[in-house]
Write a structure and sequence with these properties.
EC 7.6.2.1, alpha+beta, Calcium-transporting ATPase, cytoplasmic transduction domain A, 6-stranded antiparallel beta sheet, 10-stranded mixed beta sheet, 34% helix, globular, ATPase_P-typ_P_site, magnesium ion binding
Length: 939
C-alpha cells in the first residue's frame, strides 16, 4: 500500500524497530520533503528485501557561516528526536550487518511508497516539483519564461524613470521652478523661455545619452534571448531560442556554450560525468571549476536514453545563493528504475557560466529567466548619487536659501522705497499700497533676476568633467599592466570622483595583496622540519644527542623510501595525496605528468607537493582514487567527503585504504584541528605547534593534517546519519556539518604544511602611498596571526618601529577589559601631549576576540581604538566577520569605504562597502590600481 494513501495507516521509523508512529491527518500534502532515514514506511516490510540507497554526493562547495549542534539533525516534519539519542541507541545494536539490511529494506519501501503515490502536492511551500520529459505537466505549473531583460527602461517607463532620476538633482528642480514662475504674466522680467529652453536642452541631451546606452542593453538582451540552444522534446533533439526554453527541458550544450538557464548536470562526454565550467561572469574568477553528475545518470549519453527518464526533481525554490543548491531527483521507473538521488551544487550549472574543455553535456533546466540565481542576485540599479553630487545638492539648497533671502529683502526694499517715494513717482501711476499678492509676485520676480546665482551649466559641466576624467584613466600608461596587456578601465565615470573621497580601505589578503599562486615549501612531521630549500645556518645537525634544524626535501624522500606504509612520514603524504577534491589531467602520457584542476590553490599546491615527493595523484573516479607511490599504484575507495567551508575551517575524506581499513583524513586550520585531537598534550603536538609559529613568522600559510581509523560498525552507523542529512531538501548543509562533527573527533596529528603565497607586484609601494595620503587600511584575512603580521611587515602596512596592540582574548570580559585599557592608555596625556604616537600604532585582533569586539557593549570601544591606529589587521576571520566589520564602520563613521576582495567568498563583505561607492572588486586576474600600479580595473 503506497505511503500516504490511508489516513489511519500505521508506520514505523527506521531508526529503531521499537519506534511506532500513528500517521494521522492527511499525509498527501506533505508526502515528501526529502527522503530521509526517518521516512515513514508501511508495516508490511519483508526484512529480506533489499535495495542499495544511492551514495550521497561527495562534492560540496557551499558555505555556511553558522555553527550547528548535533540536535539539528532531525527528520523534517515527522519527529524531534535528537540524533545523539539515536546514536546511543544504535551503538547498542549487536549486528551492524543486520541493521544495514533492515535500513536498506526500509529505504526501498519508503522510496517505492513515495514514487507510487500519485497524490503528491505539485509544489509545496519550500520546494517545487519539476517533471522530467513532460512539457505539458510543467506548463500547468506556470513557471516563468526564459526571456530576460537587463535594460534600464522600456517604452512605458522611460519618461517617468528618467524624469525621476533627473529631478533627484536639486539644480534641475530649481531650474524647473524658475521656468514655471517665468510663465506667470506680470512676474517675469525676462522671456518665458530664458530658463526653460536651456533646461530642455540639458534634459534632451541627457535623455539621448540614456537612450543610446539603453538601446545597447536592449540589443544585447535581444541577442541573448534569440540565441540557439538544443533541447530534447518528444524524444527528438531540436533547436529552440533561449527565450523559449522552459523549466524541465533537457538541453544539450557543446564546448564553449554559455548556459542558458540554471541546469542540473545529467551526463557529459567526459568519464564519470565530469565537466569543466568557467564562472568569470559570475565571480570574476577565470580558473576552471569542476562539476560532476550523479553516477546513476552519467551513462545517459544519448538522446534516446535521456528521453526515457521518468520522474521529477524536487527542487529548492528560486533564490540568489550562487553557491548552494538542494534538491532530489526522484525516478519513477524508466532507465533509472525507482531511485531517489540527492542533488547539490556539484551538479548545478548556473546561467552566466560557460562550458569549457568538455565536448558536450546533457542537463535538465530547473530555473529560467529572472528566477535564475544570476538574475535574482543582480539587484535593480538604484538611482545613485556620489558624494560630490550630494555635496552639490546641499550647496544648491544653501544657495537657494540665500537667493530666497535676497529676494525677500529686495521685495521688502522695493516696498519701502515705493512707500517713501510714491508721491514723487506719480507720473508712473504706482500705487503707494502693495497687496500681499503683489508682494509675493515681487519676491518671485527677484528670484528670476537672481537665478544666475545657481548656474544652469553646473550639472552639465560636472558630467563633462567626470567623463573626461574617466577617459584619462582609460588612457593612462602608468596604469597599464604590461604582463597581461590590460589597460585601466573606468566602468562608471560617476565612481571616479569617489576615489578621492575614500577614508577607509578594507582588503582581503589572499589573491588581493598576494598573488594566490601557492607553492608547497615546508612541512613538519614527527617533530622534524623539512623544507624545499634549507638555509645553511638552519641545516639539521646533532646537538647533545638530538637532531635539530631542518632537512631538505631530498633527505625527506630518502626517509620515506626507507619507511613502511605505517610510518608517520608515509601516512602524512598519503594524506596529502588523497584528502582533497582535485581532478587530475594527464599532460604527457609518456612521462606521467599531470596537471591538477583544484577548487582552491591550497589544495592544488598540496597535491603538487606530494607528487613532487613521490606520491603522485593519477586518477579520480566518483567512488575511488588512485595514487602512484614510487611506481606502485595504490587504489583507495572514497566513502565520503566532508567539504571545507568557512565556518568549519576544515575538510575531511573517509577512505577505504588498500589494506582494507577505513581511515578518516582531515586537514584544516590549527585552531579547529588541535581541539579535535585525541590527546593534544603530547610532546609531538607541542613540537608541531612550535613549528607552525615558525612557518607563520616567515609569512607562510599553514594547515594541520590529522587522521584516525574508523571501525566498520562505527562507519555504518555514521553513514546512516550522513545519508539522511544528504537527502534533506531544506537546511541540508547545516545537517551535513553536524554529521561531519560526529565523525571528526579523537584524531591523531600527523603534522603540518607550509605554503608560500607571494605578494603582488607594487603592493608595498601602493600601501605606503595610501597611508601617507591619510587613508586608513584594514586587512581582513583568514590566515594565522603570525602569518598576517609577517605579511603586514612585507607589504609595508606595518613599519619596523610600530607598536603592536595584539588582542587574543578568550572571553567577552577579557576582550572588553583589554580594549578599554589600551584605549585609556592612548587617551592619557601628559602636559597636553599624547604619550603614544598614533602614527606608529597597529591593532592585531584574532577571529575569536573579534566576535566579542563586535558585540553591542564593546563595538564602540573597539572602533575608537581601531580608528586611532595607523593599521588594523583582523586574522582568522570568516567572510561573515569581514562583512560585520565593514558594516560597523559604515554605520558609525561618515567616510566613504572601499572594500576589496579577490573572489566569490568575499562578496558578502564587499557589498557592505559605502553605498555611494558600492564596491570595487579586485580579482586575481582583474586587479584595480588604487591610484597606483597594483592592478587595472575600476568598477
Amino acid at each position: 500500500m503506497p505511503l500516504g494513501k490511508n489516513n489511519g495507516q500505521k508506520a514505523r521509523l527506521v531508526q529503531n524497530d521499537q519506534y511506532e508512529l500513528e500517521n494521522r491527518n492527511n499525509q498527501r500534502g506533505n508526502a515528501y520533503s526529502g527522503i530521509t532515514i526517518g521516512q515513514l514506511v508501511p508495516e508490511d516490510i519483508s526484512e529480506d528485501e533489499n535495495l542499495d540507497f544511492p551514495e550521497a554526493s561527495q562534492n560540496r562547495n557551499h558555505e555556511n557561516n553558522s555553527d550547528y549542534g548535533l540536535e539539528n539533525i532531525t527528520e523534517p516534519g515527522n519527529r524531534s528526536d535528537k540524533i545523539s539519542n539515536y546514536q546511543k541507541k544504535r551503538l547498542q545494536e549487536s549486528s551492524a550487518t543486520g541493521y544495514l539490511t533492515r535500513a536498506s529494506t526500509i529505504i526501498k519501501k519508503g522510496i517505492d511508497g513515495l514514487i507510487e503515490n500519485q497524490n503528491i502536492s505539485e509544489n509545496s511551500g519550500k520546494t517545487r516539483m519539476i517533471h522530467l520529459n513532460s512539457q505539458e505537466s510543467n506548463k500547468s505549473l506556470k513557471y516563468v519564461s526564459n526571456y530576460v531583460t537587463t535594460a534600464k527602461y522600456n517604452f512605458f517607463t522611460f519618461i517617468p524613470k528618467f524624469l525621476l532620476e533627473q529631478f533627484s538633482k536639486y539644480a534641475n528642480v530649481f531650474f524647473l521652478f524658475t521656468s514655471c514662475i517665468q510663465q506667470i504674466p506680470g512676474v517675469t522680467p525676462t522671456s518665458r523661455y530664458t530658463t526653460l529652453f536651456p533646461l530642455m536642452v540639458v534634459l534632451f541631451a541627457t535623455a539621448v545619452k540614456e537612450m543610446i546606452e539603453d538601446y545597447k542593453r536592449h540589443s544585447s538582451d535581444r541577442e541573448v534571448n534569440t540565441s540557439i540552444a538544443k533541447v530534447v522534446r518528444n524524444g527528438v533533439l531540436i533547436s529552440v531560442l533561449w527565450k523559449d526554453i522552459e523549466v524541465g527541458d533537457i538541453v544539450r550544450l557543446d564546448n564553449k556554450d554559455p548556459f542558458p538557464a540554471d541546469i542540473i548536470l545529467l551526463s557529459s562526454s567526459e568519464p564519470e560525468g565530469l565537466c569543466y565550467i568557467e564562472t568569470s561572469n559570475l565571480d570574476g574568477e577565470t580558473n576552471l571549476k569542476i562539476k560532476q553528475s550523479r553516477t546513476e545518470t552519467s551513462n545517459l549519453i544519448t538522446v534516446d536514453s535521456i528521453s526515457k527518464l521518468v520522474g521529477f526533481i524536487n527542487s529548492e525554490l528560486p533564490n540568489d545563493n550562487l553557491y548552494n543548491y538542494e534538491g532530489v531527483l526522484i525516478s519513477r521507473g524508466g532507465v533509472l528504475g525507482n531511485a531517489a538521488l540527492p542533488l547539490d551544487p556539484s551538479q548545478l550549472l548556473l546561467r552566466g557560466a560557460v562550458l569549457r574543455n568538455t565536448d558536450w553535456i546533457f542537463g535538465v533546466v530547473v530555473s529560467t529567466g529572472h528566477e535564475t540565481k544570476l538574475m535574482r542576485s543582480a539587484s535593480a540599479a538604484p538611482i545613485k548619487q556620489t558624494t560630490v553630487e550630494k555635496m552639490t545638492n546641499k550647496q544648491i539648497a544653501f544657495l537657494f536659501i540665500i537667493l530666497l533671502i535676497l529676494a525677500v529683502f529686495s521685495a521688502t526694499g522695493n516696498y519701502i522705497f515705493l512707500k517713501k517715494n510714491s508721491s514723487k513717482l506719480d507720473y508712473l501711476y504706482i500705487s503707494s499700497s502693495i497687496s500681499v499678492v503683489q508682494f509675493v509676485k515681487n519676491i518671485l520676480t527677484f528670484i528670476i533676476l537672481y537665478n544666475n546665482l545657481i548656474p544652469i551649466s553646473l550639472m552639465v559641466t560636472m558630467e563633462i568633467v567626470k567623463f573626461w576624467q574617466a577617459q584619462l584613466i582609460n588612457s593612462d600608461l602608468d596604469m597599464f599592466d604590461e604582463k597581461t596587456g590590460t589597460p585601466a578601465l573606468a566602468r562608471s565615470s560617476s565612481l571616479v570622483e569617489e576615489l578621492g573621497q575614500v577614508g577607509f580601505i578594507f582588503s582581503d589578503k589572499t589573491g588581493t595583496l598576494t598573488c594566490n599562486i601557492m607553492e608547497f615549501k615546508m612541512c613538519s612531521i614527527a617533530g622534524d622540519v623539512f623544507a624545499e630549500t634549507v638555509d645553511p645556518s638552519k641545516k639539521a645537525k646533532v646537538v647533545n644527542g638530538k637532531t635539530v634544524g631542518q632537512f631538505d626535501f631530498e633527505a625527506l624522500v630518502q626517509k620515506i623510501k626507507s619507511s613502511d606504509d605505517k610510518s608517520e612520514l608515509y601516512q602524512f603524504f598519503e594524506h596529502m595525496a588523497t584528502c582533497h577534491t582535485v581532478i587530475p589531467e594527464s599532460v604527457d602520457h609518456s612521462t606521467s605528468k599531470f596537471e591538477y584542476q583544484a577548487s582552491s590553490p591550497d589544495e592544488g599546491a598540496l597535491v603538487k607537493g606530494a607528487a613532487g615527493l613521490g606520491f603522485i595523484f593519477t586518477t579520480r573516479k566518483p567512488k575511488s582514487i588512485t595514487i602512484d607511490v614510487f611506481g606502485e599504484l595504490r587504489n583507495y575507495e572514497v566513502l565520503n567527503i566532508n567539504e571545507f567551508n568557512s565556518s568549519r575551517k576544515r575538510m575531511s575524506a573517509i577512505l577505504r585504504c588498500p589494506d582494507g581499513k577505513i581511515r578518516l583524513y582531515c586537514k584544516g586550520a590549527d585552531t579547529v584541528i588541535l581541539e579535535r585531537l585525541q590527546d593534544n598534550t603530547l610532546e609531538s603536538v607541542k613540537k608541531v605547534t612550535n613549528h607552525l609559529e615558525e612557518f607563520a613568522t616567515e609569512g607562510l600559510r599553514t594547515l594541520c593534517l590529522s587522521m584516525r581509523e574508523i571501525s566498520e560498525r562505527e562507519y555504518d552507523e555514521w553513514k546512516v546519519i550522513y545519508q539522511k542529512a544528504a537527502t534533506t531538501v531544506n537546511n541540508r548543509q547545516q545537517q551535513l556539518d553536524s554529521a561531519a562533527e560526529i565523525i571528526e573527533r579523537d584524531m591523531t596529528l600527523l603534522g603540518a604544511t607550509a605554503i608560500e603565497d607571494k605578494l603582488q607586484d607594487g603592493v608595498p609601494k601602493t600601501i605606503f602611498t595610501l597611508a601617507q595620503a591619510g587613508i586608513r587600511i584594514w586587512v581582513l584575512t583568514g590566515d594565522r596571526q603570525e602569518t598576517a603580521i609577517n605579511i603586514g611587515y612585507s607589504c609595508k602596512l606595518i613599519q619596523e618601529d610600530f607598536s603592536l596592540i595584539i588582542c587574543n582574548s578568550s572571553t567577552h570580559w577579557e576582550t572588553k577589559d583589554f580594549l578599554r585599557q589600551k584605549l585609556m592608555a592612548i587617551r592619557d596625556t601628559s602636559n597636553g601631549t599624547r604619550t603614544v604616537d598614533l602614527n606608529s600604532l597597529a591593532l592585531i585582533i584574532d577571529g575569536k576576540s573579534l566576535d566579542f569586539a563586535l558585540e553591542k557593549d564593546i563595538e564602540d570601544i573597539f572602533l575608537e581604538l581601531a580608528t586611532l591606529c595607523k593599521a588594523v589587521i583582523c586574522c582568522r576571520v570568516s567572510p561573515l566577520q569581514k562583512a560585520l566589520v565593514v558594516k560597523l564602520v559604515k554605520r558609525k563613521r561618515s567616510e566613504v569605504l572601499l572594500a576589496i576582495g579577490d573572489g566569490a567568498n568575499d562578496k558578502v563583505y564587499r557589498q557592505q562597502g559605502h553605498q555611494t561607492l558600492q564596491f570595487l572588486s579586485l580579482s586575481i586576474y582583474e586587479n584595480f590600481c588604487l591610484f597606483m600600479d597594483l592592478g587595472v580595473t575600476i568598477g
